[in-house]
Design goal:
This protein is of the alpha+beta class. The protein contains five helices and five strands. β2 and β3 form a beta hairpin. α2 crosses α4. The longest helix has 14 residues.
Length: 173
């Protein structure tokens, strides 16, 4: 929130930004950036959800309408003004060099992260909270990752790279 104050946001706008931050379940920039710390996640930029690192905390319910179009516009403006590098691309989510975060090796982050990549296997593993199992996404011949019919009880040792992905309307990522 300090970055928003420094960016010139005050009064009702600052209150709304705080409400949106809580709706995302984010405490710091680390809660809304990609695994490599170089950009804001698409889901956080769209005000959908954070990277789930703070889901264990007790969060207030988002008030009705907390994610309407006006709030999303304000959220994007605040992110652009305070954290994002100015690019010619309208919806670029790349962070300013001084806002970038190093890739995390903190055990608390690794234990809560839900997407991992196994380079040798060319597979992505996603933890499914409801099944308490790891869904497996396999690489297809079109360069996409498709949900496999198989899942795993534990994350393989080869799956040691954090990744940030989101579904785009299909079972492919």
């Amino acid at each position: 929130m300090q970055a928003f104050v420094t960016g010139g946001f005050r009064g009702q706008e600052l209150c709304w930004l705080n409400t949106m931050r809580m709706a995302l379940k984010a405490i710091s920039l680390a809660d809304i950036v990609t695994a490599d710390g170089q950009a804001i996640t698409q889901q956080a930029y769209l005000l959908k959800h954070s990277n789930s690192l703070r889901d264990d905390f007790d969060w207030p319910r988002a008030p009705p309408g907390a994610c309407n179009d006006d709030f999303v516009l304000l959220w994007r403006q605040a992110l652009k003004k305070c954290f994002l590098a100015p690019h010619g691309v309208q919806h670029s989510r790349v962070l300013l060099p001084q806002s970038r975060l190093p890739s995390s090796t903190d055990c608390s982050v690794l234990n809560k992260w839900t997407w991992f990549f196994a380079e040798e296997e060319r597979r992505i593993y996603c933890f499914c909270k409801y099944m308490k199992r790891w869904n497996i996404y396999v690489h297809d011949n079109r360069g996409k990752y498709c949900l496999s019919a198989f899942s795993a009880d534990t994350l393989p040792l080869a799956a040691n790279q954090l990744v940030t992905l989101a579904h785009r309307g299909t079972q492919r990522v």
